[in-house]
Amino acid sequence: MSEPVRGVVVGHASLAAGMVACVRQIAGADEDALVPVSNDGCGPESLAASLREAMGEGPALVFTDLGSGSCAFAARRIAMERPDTGIITGVNLPILLDFVFHRTMPVGELVERLVEKGRTGVSGAHREGAAHADRAVSR
Predict the structure, then answer these.
(1) Which of 25, 74, 107, 121 is deepest in the core (most CB within 10 A)?
(2) Cα–Cα dist 16/71, whole Å
Protein backbone atom coordinates (compact mmCIF):
# COMPACT_ATOMS: atom_id res chain seq x y z
CA MET A 1 0.00 0.00 0.00
CA SER A 2 1.31 3.43 -0.95
CA GLU A 3 1.67 6.27 1.52
CA PRO A 4 -1.68 8.10 1.52
CA VAL A 5 -1.72 11.36 -0.41
CA ARG A 6 -2.51 14.41 1.68
CA GLY A 7 -5.06 16.76 0.16
CA VAL A 8 -4.89 20.51 0.62
CA VAL A 9 -7.83 22.64 -0.46
CA VAL A 10 -6.83 26.26 -0.98
CA GLY A 11 -9.29 28.93 -1.91
CA HIS A 12 -10.67 32.39 -1.42
CA ALA A 13 -12.19 33.43 1.91
CA SER A 14 -13.86 30.49 3.73
CA LEU A 15 -14.47 28.29 0.66
CA ALA A 16 -11.75 25.75 1.54
CA ALA A 17 -12.86 25.38 5.16
CA GLY A 18 -16.48 24.91 4.07
CA MET A 19 -15.64 22.27 1.46
CA VAL A 20 -13.40 20.34 3.84
CA ALA A 21 -16.08 20.47 6.56
CA CYS A 22 -18.62 19.05 4.08
CA VAL A 23 -16.32 16.17 3.10
CA ARG A 24 -15.59 15.34 6.73
CA GLN A 25 -19.30 15.35 7.56
CA ILE A 26 -20.32 13.23 4.55
CA ALA A 27 -17.40 10.81 4.40
CA GLY A 28 -16.07 10.89 7.95
CA ALA A 29 -12.59 11.60 6.58
CA ASP A 30 -9.57 11.92 8.88
CA GLU A 31 -8.36 15.43 9.67
CA ASP A 32 -5.02 14.58 8.04
CA ALA A 33 -6.65 13.50 4.78
CA LEU A 34 -7.79 16.94 3.74
CA VAL A 35 -6.55 20.28 5.08
CA PRO A 36 -8.10 23.69 4.29
CA VAL A 37 -6.02 26.80 3.56
CA SER A 38 -7.47 30.26 2.95
CA ASN A 39 -5.73 33.02 1.03
CA ASP A 40 -7.34 35.65 3.25
CA GLY A 41 -4.78 38.31 4.12
CA CYS A 42 -1.95 36.38 2.43
CA GLY A 43 0.63 37.72 0.03
CA PRO A 44 2.35 35.32 -2.39
CA GLU A 45 5.07 34.30 0.09
CA SER A 46 2.83 33.77 3.11
CA LEU A 47 0.33 31.79 1.02
CA ALA A 48 3.13 29.56 -0.29
CA ALA A 49 4.40 29.05 3.27
CA SER A 50 0.90 28.06 4.45
CA LEU A 51 0.59 25.60 1.56
CA ARG A 52 3.99 24.02 2.22
CA GLU A 53 3.14 23.56 5.89
CA ALA A 54 -0.28 22.04 5.09
CA MET A 55 1.22 19.67 2.48
CA GLY A 56 3.72 18.14 4.88
CA GLU A 57 6.55 15.91 3.63
CA GLY A 58 4.82 13.09 1.72
CA PRO A 59 2.83 12.99 -1.50
CA ALA A 60 0.30 15.79 -1.77
CA LEU A 61 -2.46 17.00 -4.01
CA VAL A 62 -3.48 20.66 -3.96
CA PHE A 63 -7.06 21.53 -4.90
CA THR A 64 -7.71 25.14 -5.89
CA ASP A 65 -10.98 26.95 -6.51
CA LEU A 66 -9.85 28.77 -9.66
CA GLY A 67 -7.40 27.86 -12.39
CA SER A 68 -5.81 31.28 -12.32
CA GLY A 69 -5.36 33.35 -9.24
CA SER A 70 -3.12 33.52 -6.21
CA CYS A 71 -4.01 30.02 -4.94
CA ALA A 72 -3.27 28.24 -8.22
CA PHE A 73 -0.13 30.29 -8.85
CA ALA A 74 1.26 29.40 -5.40
CA ALA A 75 0.37 25.72 -5.90
CA ARG A 76 2.05 25.59 -9.32
CA ARG A 77 5.20 27.22 -7.98
CA ILE A 78 5.45 24.69 -5.16
CA ALA A 79 4.69 21.73 -7.44
CA MET A 80 7.66 22.66 -9.65
CA GLU A 81 10.06 22.37 -6.71
CA ARG A 82 8.44 19.48 -4.83
CA PRO A 83 8.25 15.86 -6.08
CA ASP A 84 5.07 13.81 -5.83
CA THR A 85 2.80 16.84 -5.91
CA GLY A 86 -0.32 17.25 -8.03
CA ILE A 87 -2.71 20.14 -8.63
CA ILE A 88 -6.38 20.12 -9.53
CA THR A 89 -8.09 23.43 -10.26
CA GLY A 90 -11.83 24.11 -10.23
CA VAL A 91 -12.39 21.75 -7.33
CA ASN A 92 -15.89 20.53 -6.53
CA LEU A 93 -17.42 18.29 -3.86
CA PRO A 94 -17.52 15.10 -6.01
CA ILE A 95 -13.76 15.43 -6.56
CA LEU A 96 -13.01 15.78 -2.85
CA LEU A 97 -15.29 12.92 -1.84
CA ASP A 98 -13.63 10.60 -4.34
CA PHE A 99 -10.21 11.75 -3.21
CA VAL A 100 -10.67 10.72 0.43
CA PHE A 101 -11.63 7.18 -0.66
CA HIS A 102 -8.76 6.76 -3.14
CA ARG A 103 -5.83 8.61 -1.60
CA THR A 104 -3.53 5.58 -1.66
CA MET A 105 -3.31 5.74 -5.46
CA PRO A 106 -0.16 7.18 -7.07
CA VAL A 107 -0.51 10.96 -7.45
CA GLY A 108 -0.47 10.92 -11.29
CA GLU A 109 -3.20 8.29 -11.55
CA LEU A 110 -5.19 9.99 -8.81
CA VAL A 111 -5.14 13.33 -10.65
CA GLU A 112 -6.49 11.72 -13.83
CA ARG A 113 -9.22 9.89 -11.89
CA LEU A 114 -10.31 12.99 -9.98
CA VAL A 115 -10.43 15.27 -13.03
CA GLU A 116 -12.80 12.79 -14.68
CA LYS A 117 -14.85 12.54 -11.47
CA GLY A 118 -15.13 16.33 -11.37
CA ARG A 119 -16.32 16.50 -14.97
CA THR A 120 -19.03 13.90 -14.41
CA GLY A 121 -20.11 15.69 -11.23
CA VAL A 122 -21.32 18.67 -13.25
CA SER A 123 -24.59 18.51 -15.17
CA GLY A 124 -27.22 20.93 -16.28
CA ALA A 125 -30.54 21.38 -17.95
CA HIS A 126 -32.58 24.21 -19.37
CA ARG A 127 -36.35 24.79 -19.39
CA GLU A 128 -38.31 21.55 -19.83
CA GLY A 129 -35.29 19.42 -19.14
CA ALA A 130 -34.68 21.16 -15.81
CA ALA A 131 -37.26 18.98 -14.07
CA HIS A 132 -35.25 15.94 -15.14
CA ALA A 133 -31.81 17.31 -14.24
CA ASP A 134 -31.94 15.46 -10.94
CA ARG A 135 -33.45 11.99 -10.98
CA ALA A 136 -34.61 12.46 -7.37
CA VAL A 137 -37.04 15.19 -8.46
CA SER A 138 -40.51 13.79 -9.11
CA ARG A 139 -43.24 15.29 -11.28
Answers:
(1) 74
(2) 11
Q: 40's torsion region: left (phi>0), alpha (psi -120 to 50) or beta? A: beta
Region of 127 (left: φ > 0; alpha: ψ -120 to 50; beta: rest) is left
Angle between helices 15-27 and 93-101 (to 10 degrees): 50
User: pLDDT tens track of the chain, all 139 residues?
Assistant: 578 999 999 999 999 999 999 999 999 988 889 999 999 999 999 999 999 999 999 999 999 999 998 999 999 999 999 999 999 999 999 999 999 999 999 999 999 999 999 999 898 888 776 666 666 544 4
Angle 35-37-39 (CA atoms, 0-180°, nearest 5)? 170
Residue 88 class from Cβ within 10 Å (0-12 exposed, 13-18 middle, 19+ buried)? buried
**pTM (whole model) above 0.85:** yes
3-state secondary structure of 10: strand
| Cβ atoms of residues 100 and 34 within 8 Å | yes
